Amino acid sequence: MTTPHEELLPSTRRALLHRIATAQTEGRSPSLVAAVARDGELVWSGGRSMVDGHEPDENVQYRIGSITKTFTAVLVMRLRDEGVLDLGDPLEKHLPGTGAGEVTIAELLAHTGGLAAETPGEWWERTPGTVRPELADVLGEAPFKHPVGRSFHYSNPGYTLLGALVEALRGAPWEEVLRREVLEPLGLSRTSAQPQEPHAGGWAVHPWADVMMPEPVEDLGLMAPAGQLWSTTADLVRFGSFLVKGDDRVLGADSVREMRTPSAPLSAGEWDRVYGLGLDVLRWERGSLAGHGGSLPGFLAALWVSEADGVAAVALANCTSGPPVGALAVDLVKIVSEAEPRIPEPWRPLPEVDGKVLELAGPWYWGTQVLVLRLTADGGVELGPLSGWGRQAQFRANGDGTWTGLSGYYAGELLRAVRRPDGSVSHLDLGSFVLTRKPYDEGAPVPGGVDPQGWRGF
User: Fold this and answer.
1) 155: burial class by Cβ within 10 Å (0-12, 13-18, 19+)?
2) Which of 29, 153, 298, 321 could form an SS bridge with 317, CB 3.0 to 4.6 Å?
3) SS in 3 state form for 158-169?
4) Which of 31, 11, 10 has the alpha carbon at shortest distance from 20?
Protein backbone atom coordinates (compact mmCIF):
# COMPACT_ATOMS: atom_id res chain seq x y z
CA MET A 1 0.00 0.00 0.00
CA THR A 2 1.12 3.57 -0.55
CA THR A 3 0.07 6.99 0.56
CA PRO A 4 -1.70 8.91 -2.25
CA HIS A 5 0.66 11.90 -2.35
CA GLU A 6 3.87 9.85 -2.27
CA GLU A 7 3.07 6.97 -4.58
CA LEU A 8 5.99 4.97 -5.88
CA LEU A 9 6.15 3.94 -9.51
CA PRO A 10 4.49 0.59 -10.31
CA SER A 11 7.86 -0.84 -11.35
CA THR A 12 9.38 0.16 -8.01
CA ARG A 13 6.49 -1.36 -6.07
CA ARG A 14 6.83 -4.60 -8.00
CA ALA A 15 10.58 -4.72 -7.40
CA LEU A 16 10.00 -4.27 -3.66
CA LEU A 17 7.34 -7.00 -3.60
CA HIS A 18 9.53 -9.36 -5.60
CA ARG A 19 12.42 -8.81 -3.19
CA ILE A 20 10.44 -9.62 -0.04
CA ALA A 21 8.66 -12.55 -1.73
CA THR A 22 12.02 -14.03 -2.66
CA ALA A 23 13.32 -13.48 0.88
CA GLN A 24 10.30 -15.17 2.47
CA THR A 25 10.43 -18.15 0.12
CA GLU A 26 14.18 -18.73 0.18
CA GLY A 27 14.43 -17.96 3.90
CA ARG A 28 11.48 -20.27 4.67
CA SER A 29 9.88 -17.79 7.04
CA PRO A 30 6.28 -18.37 8.16
CA SER A 31 5.68 -14.71 7.41
CA LEU A 32 7.66 -11.63 6.50
CA VAL A 33 6.61 -7.99 6.46
CA ALA A 34 8.45 -4.90 5.24
CA ALA A 35 7.91 -1.20 4.72
CA VAL A 36 9.63 1.82 3.20
CA ALA A 37 9.33 5.48 4.15
CA ARG A 38 10.55 8.41 2.11
CA ASP A 39 11.08 11.81 3.69
CA GLY A 40 9.22 10.64 6.78
CA GLU A 41 6.14 9.30 4.98
CA LEU A 42 5.21 5.63 4.60
CA VAL A 43 5.25 5.03 0.84
CA TRP A 44 5.11 1.24 0.61
CA SER A 45 4.46 -1.79 2.74
CA GLY A 46 4.09 -5.43 1.90
CA GLY A 47 3.87 -8.83 3.49
CA ARG A 48 4.13 -12.51 2.64
CA SER A 49 2.75 -15.45 4.57
CA MET A 50 2.65 -19.24 4.48
CA VAL A 51 -1.15 -18.92 4.81
CA ASP A 52 -2.86 -17.68 1.65
CA GLY A 53 -4.87 -14.51 2.19
CA HIS A 54 -3.31 -13.78 5.58
CA GLU A 55 -0.40 -11.60 4.63
CA PRO A 56 0.55 -9.34 7.55
CA ASP A 57 0.32 -5.61 7.06
CA GLU A 58 2.20 -2.63 8.46
CA ASN A 59 0.23 -2.72 11.74
CA VAL A 60 1.03 -6.30 12.82
CA GLN A 61 3.49 -6.50 15.70
CA TYR A 62 6.69 -8.55 15.60
CA ARG A 63 9.34 -8.78 18.27
CA ILE A 64 12.27 -6.53 17.27
CA GLY A 65 15.03 -7.78 19.58
CA SER A 66 18.09 -5.57 19.72
CA ILE A 67 16.54 -2.67 17.84
CA THR A 68 15.29 -2.05 21.40
CA LYS A 69 18.84 -0.90 22.20
CA THR A 70 18.45 2.12 19.94
CA PHE A 71 15.35 3.18 21.88
CA THR A 72 17.29 2.81 25.13
CA ALA A 73 20.14 4.87 23.69
CA VAL A 74 17.67 7.66 22.86
CA LEU A 75 16.60 7.76 26.52
CA VAL A 76 20.22 8.06 27.64
CA MET A 77 20.92 10.83 25.12
CA ARG A 78 17.90 12.71 26.46
CA LEU A 79 19.41 12.60 29.94
CA ARG A 80 22.66 13.93 28.51
CA ASP A 81 20.90 16.76 26.67
CA GLU A 82 19.10 17.76 29.86
CA GLY A 83 22.42 17.98 31.70
CA VAL A 84 21.54 15.14 34.07
CA LEU A 85 24.66 13.23 33.03
CA ASP A 86 27.69 13.47 30.78
CA LEU A 87 28.58 10.66 28.39
CA GLY A 88 32.07 10.68 29.86
CA ASP A 89 30.76 10.00 33.36
CA PRO A 90 31.65 6.63 34.86
CA LEU A 91 28.57 4.53 35.53
CA GLU A 92 29.45 4.50 39.23
CA LYS A 93 28.68 8.21 39.49
CA HIS A 94 24.99 7.64 38.80
CA LEU A 95 24.48 3.92 39.45
CA PRO A 96 26.81 2.77 42.22
CA GLY A 97 27.51 -0.75 43.32
CA THR A 98 27.22 -2.61 40.02
CA GLY A 99 30.77 -3.95 39.95
CA ALA A 100 31.20 -2.44 36.50
CA GLY A 101 31.16 1.19 37.55
CA GLU A 102 34.46 2.16 35.91
CA VAL A 103 32.86 1.94 32.47
CA THR A 104 31.69 5.28 31.06
CA ILE A 105 28.20 5.82 29.74
CA ALA A 106 29.59 6.47 26.25
CA GLU A 107 31.45 3.16 26.37
CA LEU A 108 28.28 1.32 27.28
CA LEU A 109 26.41 2.99 24.43
CA ALA A 110 29.17 2.12 21.93
CA HIS A 111 29.87 -1.43 23.23
CA THR A 112 33.45 -0.55 24.11
CA GLY A 113 33.13 -1.18 27.86
CA GLY A 114 34.80 -4.59 27.69
CA LEU A 115 31.75 -6.35 29.15
CA ALA A 116 30.67 -9.87 28.26
CA ALA A 117 28.40 -10.35 25.27
CA GLU A 118 25.88 -12.41 27.25
CA THR A 119 24.74 -13.09 30.80
CA PRO A 120 26.11 -15.99 32.86
CA GLY A 121 23.93 -19.02 33.28
CA GLU A 122 21.17 -20.17 30.96
CA TRP A 123 20.44 -18.56 27.58
CA TRP A 124 18.75 -15.33 28.66
CA GLU A 125 16.60 -14.97 25.54
CA ARG A 126 14.86 -18.28 26.23
CA THR A 127 14.48 -18.06 30.01
CA PRO A 128 12.24 -15.81 32.12
CA GLY A 129 13.67 -12.63 33.56
CA THR A 130 12.73 -13.82 37.05
CA VAL A 131 15.84 -16.05 37.06
CA ARG A 132 17.94 -12.84 36.91
CA PRO A 133 16.33 -10.66 39.60
CA GLU A 134 19.41 -8.49 40.30
CA LEU A 135 22.07 -6.77 38.20
CA ALA A 136 24.61 -9.14 39.78
CA ASP A 137 22.75 -12.00 38.09
CA VAL A 138 23.08 -10.22 34.74
CA LEU A 139 26.77 -9.38 35.09
CA GLY A 140 28.10 -12.38 37.01
CA GLU A 141 31.31 -12.57 39.00
CA ALA A 142 33.57 -11.74 36.02
CA PRO A 143 31.70 -9.19 33.89
CA PHE A 144 34.75 -8.00 31.90
CA LYS A 145 36.11 -9.89 28.90
CA HIS A 146 38.31 -7.12 27.44
CA PRO A 147 40.14 -4.01 28.67
CA VAL A 148 37.71 -1.13 29.17
CA GLY A 149 37.57 1.29 26.25
CA ARG A 150 40.03 -0.56 24.05
CA SER A 151 37.87 -2.38 21.52
CA PHE A 152 34.34 -3.04 20.33
CA HIS A 153 32.66 -6.06 21.91
CA TYR A 154 28.89 -6.22 21.61
CA SER A 155 27.33 -6.49 25.07
CA ASN A 156 23.72 -7.21 25.95
CA PRO A 157 24.38 -6.78 29.70
CA GLY A 158 25.81 -3.34 28.91
CA TYR A 159 22.39 -2.17 27.76
CA THR A 160 20.78 -3.70 30.84
CA LEU A 161 23.03 -1.34 32.82
CA LEU A 162 21.87 1.58 30.68
CA GLY A 163 18.24 0.67 31.29
CA ALA A 164 18.92 0.50 35.03
CA LEU A 165 20.62 3.90 34.77
CA VAL A 166 17.51 5.39 33.12
CA GLU A 167 15.30 3.94 35.86
CA ALA A 168 17.55 5.27 38.62
CA LEU A 169 17.70 8.80 37.22
CA ARG A 170 14.03 9.02 36.21
CA GLY A 171 12.64 7.23 39.26
CA ALA A 172 10.33 5.12 37.10
CA PRO A 173 10.43 1.77 35.24
CA TRP A 174 12.26 1.73 31.90
CA GLU A 175 9.09 0.80 30.01
CA GLU A 176 7.13 3.69 31.52
CA VAL A 177 9.89 6.20 30.78
CA LEU A 178 10.18 4.94 27.20
CA ARG A 179 6.45 5.24 26.58
CA ARG A 180 6.23 8.74 28.07
CA GLU A 181 9.38 10.24 26.57
CA VAL A 182 9.71 8.54 23.17
CA LEU A 183 6.81 6.39 22.03
CA GLU A 184 3.96 8.81 22.74
CA PRO A 185 5.67 11.98 21.41
CA LEU A 186 6.64 10.20 18.16
CA GLY A 187 3.21 8.59 17.74
CA LEU A 188 4.55 5.03 17.97
CA SER A 189 1.31 3.64 19.35
CA ARG A 190 2.00 0.09 18.15
CA THR A 191 5.36 -0.27 19.91
CA SER A 192 5.24 -1.88 23.34
CA ALA A 193 7.10 -4.07 25.80
CA GLN A 194 4.37 -6.74 25.70
CA PRO A 195 2.67 -8.07 22.55
CA GLN A 196 -0.60 -6.47 21.52
CA GLU A 197 -3.02 -7.93 19.00
CA PRO A 198 -2.60 -8.29 16.12
CA HIS A 199 0.86 -9.76 16.51
CA ALA A 200 2.81 -12.58 14.92
CA GLY A 201 3.78 -15.75 16.74
CA GLY A 202 7.42 -16.78 16.77
CA TRP A 203 8.51 -20.04 15.12
CA ALA A 204 11.57 -22.24 14.80
CA VAL A 205 11.87 -23.75 11.31
CA HIS A 206 13.81 -27.02 11.06
CA PRO A 207 17.07 -26.45 9.17
CA TRP A 208 16.78 -29.65 7.09
CA ALA A 209 13.03 -30.11 6.71
CA ASP A 210 10.00 -27.95 6.01
CA VAL A 211 8.54 -28.37 9.49
CA MET A 212 8.41 -25.98 12.43
CA MET A 213 7.60 -25.57 16.12
CA PRO A 214 6.58 -22.56 18.22
CA GLU A 215 9.20 -20.64 20.18
CA PRO A 216 8.50 -19.57 23.78
CA VAL A 217 7.85 -15.89 24.50
CA GLU A 218 9.65 -14.77 27.64
CA ASP A 219 9.52 -11.53 29.57
CA LEU A 220 13.18 -10.57 29.76
CA GLY A 221 13.01 -8.72 33.07
CA LEU A 222 16.15 -6.65 33.67
CA MET A 223 17.33 -7.49 30.13
CA ALA A 224 14.32 -5.70 28.63
CA PRO A 225 16.29 -2.56 27.60
CA ALA A 226 18.49 -4.81 25.44
CA GLY A 227 15.75 -6.59 23.48
CA GLN A 228 12.20 -6.64 24.85
CA LEU A 229 10.19 -4.51 22.44
CA TRP A 230 7.49 -5.46 19.95
CA SER A 231 6.73 -3.13 17.04
CA THR A 232 5.39 -2.82 13.52
CA THR A 233 6.92 -1.79 10.23
CA ALA A 234 4.83 1.40 10.21
CA ASP A 235 6.12 2.43 13.63
CA LEU A 236 9.71 1.49 12.86
CA VAL A 237 10.02 3.44 9.60
CA ARG A 238 8.62 6.44 11.48
CA PHE A 239 11.26 5.86 14.15
CA GLY A 240 13.89 5.53 11.41
CA SER A 241 12.91 8.88 9.96
CA PHE A 242 13.27 10.40 13.44
CA LEU A 243 16.81 8.99 13.63
CA VAL A 244 17.68 11.11 10.59
CA LYS A 245 15.88 14.38 11.25
CA GLY A 246 15.39 14.36 15.00
CA ASP A 247 12.37 15.77 16.79
CA ASP A 248 12.79 18.49 19.40
CA ARG A 249 10.14 16.82 21.57
CA VAL A 250 12.49 13.83 21.95
CA LEU A 251 16.00 14.52 20.59
CA GLY A 252 17.20 17.31 18.33
CA ALA A 253 18.92 16.84 14.98
CA ASP A 254 22.40 17.35 16.46
CA SER A 255 21.91 14.58 19.00
CA VAL A 256 20.61 11.98 16.55
CA ARG A 257 23.51 12.93 14.25
CA GLU A 258 25.82 12.20 17.18
CA MET A 259 24.21 8.78 17.56
CA ARG A 260 24.92 8.09 13.88
CA THR A 261 28.55 9.17 14.21
CA PRO A 262 31.01 6.25 14.43
CA SER A 263 32.24 5.76 17.99
CA ALA A 264 33.77 2.30 17.85
CA PRO A 265 35.02 0.08 15.01
CA LEU A 266 33.83 -3.46 14.66
CA SER A 267 36.23 -6.30 13.91
CA ALA A 268 39.06 -5.78 11.46
CA GLY A 269 37.30 -7.91 8.87
CA GLU A 270 34.29 -5.61 8.81
CA TRP A 271 35.95 -2.42 7.57
CA ASP A 272 32.69 -1.21 6.06
CA ARG A 273 30.78 -1.33 9.34
CA VAL A 274 31.20 0.74 12.50
CA TYR A 275 29.12 1.44 15.61
CA GLY A 276 27.91 4.78 16.89
CA LEU A 277 25.89 5.42 20.05
CA GLY A 278 23.14 2.82 19.89
CA LEU A 279 23.30 2.58 16.10
CA ASP A 280 25.22 0.59 13.52
CA VAL A 281 26.66 2.57 10.61
CA LEU A 282 27.29 0.90 7.25
CA ARG A 283 29.37 2.40 4.47
CA TRP A 284 27.91 1.81 1.02
CA GLU A 285 28.20 3.21 -2.46
CA ARG A 286 25.69 6.01 -1.84
CA GLY A 287 27.23 7.23 1.40
CA SER A 288 26.23 5.55 4.65
CA LEU A 289 23.33 3.77 6.29
CA ALA A 290 22.42 3.91 9.97
CA GLY A 291 20.23 1.46 11.84
CA HIS A 292 20.18 -1.73 13.84
CA GLY A 293 19.34 -5.39 13.57
CA GLY A 294 17.56 -7.56 16.09
CA SER A 295 16.74 -11.16 16.86
CA LEU A 296 15.10 -13.19 19.58
CA PRO A 297 13.97 -16.82 19.38
CA GLY A 298 11.19 -16.78 16.80
CA PHE A 299 11.92 -13.33 15.35
CA LEU A 300 14.30 -11.41 13.10
CA ALA A 301 14.29 -7.65 12.54
CA ALA A 302 16.24 -4.96 10.71
CA LEU A 303 15.95 -1.19 10.31
CA TRP A 304 18.18 0.89 8.00
CA VAL A 305 17.97 4.54 6.96
CA SER A 306 19.80 6.57 4.34
CA GLU A 307 20.09 10.23 5.27
CA ALA A 308 21.28 11.19 1.78
CA ASP A 309 18.24 9.62 0.12
CA GLY A 310 15.68 10.29 2.84
CA VAL A 311 14.70 6.60 2.75
CA ALA A 312 14.04 4.25 5.69
CA ALA A 313 13.34 0.53 5.32
CA VAL A 314 12.28 -2.17 7.78
CA ALA A 315 12.04 -5.95 7.42
CA LEU A 316 10.56 -8.27 10.06
CA ALA A 317 10.20 -12.06 10.07
CA ASN A 318 8.79 -14.54 12.58
CA CYS A 319 11.42 -17.26 12.57
CA THR A 320 14.53 -17.87 14.64
CA SER A 321 16.81 -18.04 11.60
CA GLY A 322 16.35 -17.99 7.87
CA PRO A 323 15.91 -14.84 5.81
CA PRO A 324 18.80 -12.35 6.06
CA VAL A 325 16.56 -9.46 7.00
CA GLY A 326 19.46 -7.04 7.42
CA ALA A 327 20.53 -7.44 3.81
CA LEU A 328 16.87 -7.37 2.79
CA ALA A 329 16.26 -3.99 4.44
CA VAL A 330 19.41 -2.59 2.81
CA ASP A 331 18.16 -3.83 -0.57
CA LEU A 332 14.80 -2.13 -0.05
CA VAL A 333 16.59 1.17 0.56
CA LYS A 334 18.65 0.62 -2.59
CA ILE A 335 15.66 -0.26 -4.75
CA VAL A 336 13.85 2.96 -3.94
CA SER A 337 16.95 5.16 -3.91
CA GLU A 338 18.20 3.92 -7.27
CA ALA A 339 14.88 3.57 -9.06
CA GLU A 340 13.49 6.88 -7.82
CA PRO A 341 16.37 9.14 -6.76
CA ARG A 342 15.44 12.08 -4.61
CA ILE A 343 14.39 15.18 -6.56
CA PRO A 344 16.55 18.06 -5.34
CA GLU A 345 14.90 21.07 -3.83
CA PRO A 346 14.95 24.15 -6.12
CA TRP A 347 17.92 26.42 -5.60
CA ARG A 348 16.95 29.50 -3.64
CA PRO A 349 19.09 32.37 -2.38
CA LEU A 350 19.60 32.80 1.34
CA PRO A 351 16.84 34.86 2.97
CA GLU A 352 19.50 36.97 4.66
CA VAL A 353 23.22 36.97 5.21
CA ASP A 354 25.62 38.57 7.66
CA GLY A 355 28.11 40.69 5.76
CA LYS A 356 30.91 39.68 8.12
CA VAL A 357 30.25 36.05 7.31
CA LEU A 358 29.87 36.64 3.58
CA GLU A 359 33.33 38.19 3.37
CA LEU A 360 34.78 34.90 4.60
CA ALA A 361 33.41 32.97 1.63
CA GLY A 362 35.78 31.90 -1.10
CA PRO A 363 39.32 30.51 -1.32
CA TRP A 364 41.67 30.11 1.63
CA TYR A 365 45.10 28.55 1.84
CA TRP A 366 46.42 26.05 4.35
CA GLY A 367 50.06 26.35 3.46
CA THR A 368 49.86 25.86 -0.29
CA GLN A 369 46.66 23.79 -0.38
CA VAL A 370 43.64 25.61 -1.73
CA LEU A 371 40.48 25.32 0.37
CA VAL A 372 37.09 26.88 -0.25
CA LEU A 373 34.69 28.13 2.42
CA ARG A 374 31.03 28.18 1.44
CA LEU A 375 27.99 29.44 3.34
CA THR A 376 25.13 26.99 3.93
CA ALA A 377 21.41 27.66 4.17
CA ASP A 378 21.27 26.76 7.87
CA GLY A 379 23.72 29.49 8.86
CA GLY A 380 26.71 27.18 8.97
CA VAL A 381 29.67 26.89 6.62
CA GLU A 382 31.41 24.16 4.63
CA LEU A 383 35.14 23.92 4.14
CA GLY A 384 36.81 21.63 1.66
CA PRO A 385 39.37 21.36 -1.15
CA LEU A 386 38.87 23.35 -4.33
CA SER A 387 39.37 20.12 -6.27
CA GLY A 388 40.64 16.62 -5.74
CA TRP A 389 41.25 14.91 -2.42
CA GLY A 390 41.39 16.73 0.88
CA ARG A 391 39.81 17.23 4.26
CA GLN A 392 36.22 18.37 4.08
CA ALA A 393 33.75 19.24 6.82
CA GLN A 394 30.58 21.04 7.68
CA PHE A 395 30.49 23.50 10.57
CA ARG A 396 27.61 24.59 12.79
CA ALA A 397 27.30 28.26 13.73
CA ASN A 398 27.70 28.84 17.47
CA GLY A 399 26.02 32.24 17.48
CA ASP A 400 29.16 34.11 18.57
CA GLY A 401 30.97 34.35 15.25
CA THR A 402 32.56 30.89 15.56
CA TRP A 403 31.66 27.52 14.11
CA THR A 404 32.07 23.94 15.37
CA GLY A 405 32.96 21.08 13.04
CA LEU A 406 30.32 18.42 12.52
CA SER A 407 32.11 15.84 10.43
CA GLY A 408 35.37 14.42 9.23
CA TYR A 409 38.79 15.40 10.56
CA TYR A 410 37.44 18.67 11.97
CA ALA A 411 34.51 17.21 13.93
CA GLY A 412 34.32 19.10 17.23
CA GLU A 413 37.07 21.56 16.23
CA LEU A 414 36.50 25.31 16.45
CA LEU A 415 36.68 27.56 13.39
CA ARG A 416 36.99 31.32 13.95
CA ALA A 417 37.92 34.40 11.98
CA VAL A 418 40.76 36.42 13.52
CA ARG A 419 40.46 40.13 12.80
CA ARG A 420 42.93 42.98 12.90
CA PRO A 421 42.34 46.07 15.06
CA ASP A 422 40.70 47.79 12.07
CA GLY A 423 38.17 44.95 11.72
CA SER A 424 39.64 43.41 8.57
CA VAL A 425 40.18 39.66 8.49
CA SER A 426 43.73 38.53 9.16
CA HIS A 427 43.21 34.77 8.91
CA LEU A 428 41.06 31.82 9.92
CA ASP A 429 42.05 29.72 12.91
CA LEU A 430 40.99 26.09 12.74
CA GLY A 431 42.27 23.91 15.55
CA SER A 432 45.69 25.69 15.46
CA PHE A 433 45.83 25.68 11.65
CA VAL A 434 46.18 29.16 10.13
CA LEU A 435 44.26 29.65 6.88
CA THR A 436 45.24 32.69 4.85
CA ARG A 437 43.93 34.50 1.79
CA LYS A 438 47.12 33.81 -0.15
CA PRO A 439 49.70 31.04 0.22
CA TYR A 440 51.93 31.71 3.23
CA ASP A 441 50.68 35.27 3.60
CA GLU A 442 53.52 37.32 5.09
CA GLY A 443 50.94 39.53 6.80
CA ALA A 444 49.45 36.67 8.82
CA PRO A 445 50.91 34.82 11.83
CA VAL A 446 51.91 31.72 9.86
CA PRO A 447 53.51 29.19 12.24
CA GLY A 448 57.23 29.03 11.55
CA GLY A 449 57.15 32.37 9.77
CA VAL A 450 57.50 33.22 6.08
CA ASP A 451 60.84 33.46 4.28
CA PRO A 452 61.56 37.21 3.97
CA GLN A 453 62.74 36.75 0.36
CA GLY A 454 59.31 35.45 -0.59
CA TRP A 455 58.55 33.30 -3.60
CA ARG A 456 61.33 32.85 -6.19
CA GLY A 457 62.31 30.81 -9.21
CA PHE A 458 65.17 28.34 -9.25
Assistant:
1) buried
2) 29
3) HHHHHHHHHHHH
4) 31
